[in-house]
Amino acid sequence: MTPEDLKSLIRTIPDFPKPGILFRDVTTLIGHGTGFASATAMLADHARKAGAQAIAGIEARGFIFGAAVAARLGLPFVPVRKPGKLPVPVLAMDYALEYGTDTLEVDPEAVVEGHIVVLIDDLIATGGTAHAAVKLLRRAGGVVNKGLFVIDLPDLGGADRLRGEDLSVEALMEFEGD
After folding, report:
1. N or C: which end of the chain has fewer CB within 10 A?
2. Do the Cβ atoms of 42 and 71 come closer than 8 Å?
3. Which positions are catalytic?
4. Going by C-beta distance under 8 Å and a sequence separation of 6 or more, which residues neighbour residue 45?
């Protein structure tokens, strides 16, 4: 399948989670066996070319794509979790949201010092969550120089924000607008 074929598998839901937003839903891509396999293969190819030694995925949909890529490449998977989900001492990073803050956590033993960690998530919008994940993984000792996303919403500037943090960013597809 081509990236355009994959793009046709993305469902758009208007006015979710609030009026005026066009929600790009990857559930329909994940539910299409051939499409999901193709997306995973494309992401894995980019990760391999980046020299990945581990794959990190952001909760929740980043787990789906990231774990599939890690398994395909035979690499460790590092989950970047929401607070309170890991049963061990964690490294945590707070980050700003539109209204308030949130936190991400990682098990520091899941990241090998100096290993190349490629970050994967389903979508890059403003980049706040991905930016915090990159900082957290770097603090844990990972060399994070590549972010891979299924969807980029370029009008929201997240990919450019990450590029400003010395991160190469690639997405399988883009959707203009919110």
Report:
1. C
2. no
3. 61, 98
4. none
